[in-house]
Amino acid sequence: MTDFLDSKKLYHAFLGGAKAVIDAKDGLNAINVFPVADGDTGSNLASTMLSIVEESKIAASAKETLFTISEAALFGARGNSGIIFAQYVNGMHFHLSDDKRVSLGCFARSVSGGADYAYNAMGNPVEGTMITVIRAWSEAIAQAKDHGATFQEVLVHALKQAKTALENTPNMLRVLRDNGVVDAGAKGFFTFVEGFTSVISEETYVTEVEHLPQLVNEEVLDQAPVFRYCTEVLLQGEGLDADKIRMGLTSFGDSLIVAGTETKIRVHIHTDEPRLVCAYLADYGVMVQQKVDDMQNQFDVIHHRKYRIALVTDSVADLPQSVMEEYQIQVIPLHIAFAGNDYLDKVTMDTGTLFERLEDSEAYPSSSQPNVKAVANQLSFLANHYEHVLVLTVSGKLSGTYETVKKAAAGVSPDIVVLDTRQNSGAQGLLVKAAAEQIALGKTFAEVQSFVTQSISQTKIFVSVPNLDAMIRSGRLGEKGGAIGNTLRLKPVVSLSDTGAGTVSDIAFSLQSNTKKIAARVKRMLARNQVAEYAIVHAHTPERAAEYEELFTNIVGKPPTYVMEISSIIAMSAGIGCVAIAIRMQLDEGEEI
């Protein structure tokens, strides 16, 4: 009979608990109604547990082993429940002695300390949730430790107490009682301790834990969220003060949890301003990971879905938010690395903020394609609610996003179609808008695909670049060639080739001449056929955008469909002050621009 825990037993007990939660994922999602009925508690907890399985290891002592578990949990934590659990394990580690063998008394102090840590991490602890069952389990262990019982006996007793607490959660929260369910997070923790207890009681080792299948919000949002975005950030630094950070974030939203250590903290908050949340956190440390879910969008997809076809693009496509919402266009954000921080394009980083920070920064940001798992999760959710899914990505010659999305889609469903638009910015935006209109007209999936394929060659973008500084700093242009170009005061017109590669269409020595060359190209296009629609996009230069709007309204004979600021991803390489016209022509099939 076990009267102590060592590294190996503790490690396998955690793996047993993790496996139990992973196996219970779907059932936990099905009963998730609090704090938001978004059906993802099981997925979030399973993701957290999978991180423990994949990243933790057996170390020389139980305390060191628990440290690897706590680090893995914090790094992989997702959602309210995942972060609360991670903080609980972190508190357990902090309160665990460094003895080679962990006695029952030592373990009791560890779990009690962990419960306190979990409570303190929450901005507004709510009874009837996971924290209630955590407390009940921990207190049962602490109360039984002095009665001469074995680990097995104490854990079996504590499991019964945890079950009683779980069954009582509907009496504490009306939303649970009204829906006839127990709290999903609370049941998730109970499921974990079931698996944990089973390993200790049977003295068996967990040799293998299967990889988690698709992590997807499979159930419904029953109520519209109070705040739009579920925002999570992993913050690293020195001397991080969780209490201070928590106090500073209270005004940004609700469901606030700040968990971690002095060197690593995970933040969870429901907010309408994820960009402001990240701007606040950037003053405390380095944001190595961000995740932002649009809960309002999820709710609309489930309860107010307009079409049979889901249309998806990436954040490089410049299209007004009002248009995106009108046609329920889904967006995959690209990532921006800046001064060690990870940002999400158009979500936690916009063009104005980018240029503002560049003024005082020697480092230059870089972009990267989205994470395959994150894209797969998003596509899985859409595949569950639409008959078809069509993804239109930025040019594959400019970004690895197309290949990333193809890989993610292949792992979800062979029926998801991913098309390389061979465009970017406003040109990509016009293609997406045109595809959305075809979907709204009730065209078949095959007809929409055919329309987009034909429209790609009918779409062009011409960018007026005031100087080559951004192209040099971003690596798009060599320093030597860029220096010569700047010395000659070259003002290039940048466009995309038929294959979607960046190309210089014209060279001018003044912005006035540069604009004339773009106008001449547009006039030549108009001499052959009509403009279906066009857009003006710019990089933090509304004055130049207004000049272009007036100029091309006169040339084309109608105003632009929209005028907007470009993606911060494009702004990084084009630079402040650039302006562009994107055009989609009405051409006969096979005719070239």
CATH class of the domain at 7-202: Mainly Alpha
| Binned strand content | 15-25%
Query: How does the major sheet shape up?
Result: 6 strands, mixed
What's the CATH topology label of the domain at 7-202? Answer: Serine Threonine Protein Phosphatase 5, Tetratricopeptide repeat
Instruction: Find the CATH superfamily of the domain at 7-202.
Output: DhaL domain
Radius of gyration: 27 Å
Helix content: 40-55%
Termini distance?
81 Å
Structural class: alpha+beta
Any guess at the CATH architecture of the domain at 7-202? Alpha Horseshoe
Give the strand tally: 17
Instruction: Walk across the major sheet and give the strand order.
Output: 14-13-12-17-15-16
Mean of residue pLDDT values: 88
Give the low-pLDDT segments. 209-220, 477-485
Query: What sort of overall outline do the alpha carbons produce when their principal axes are compared?
Result: elongated
Task: Characterise this structure.
The structure is a single chain. The protein has 25 helices and 17 strands. It is an alpha+beta fold and 593 residues long. Among the domains are: 7-202, DhaL domain (Serine Threonine Protein Phosphatase 5, Tetratricopeptide repeat, Alpha Horseshoe); 221-301, Alpha-Beta Plaits; 457-585, 2-Layer Sandwich (Hypothetical Protein Tm841, Chain: A,domain 3). Strands 14-13-12-17-15-16 form a six-stranded mixed β-sheet, sandwiched between helices. Strands 2-3-1-4 form a four-stranded antiparallel β-sheet, sandwiched between helices. The model is unreliable at 209-220 and 477-485 (pLDDT under 50). Residues 8-198 form the DhaL domain. This is DhaL domain-containing protein. Keywords: Lipid-binding. It holds the Pfam family FakA-like_M.
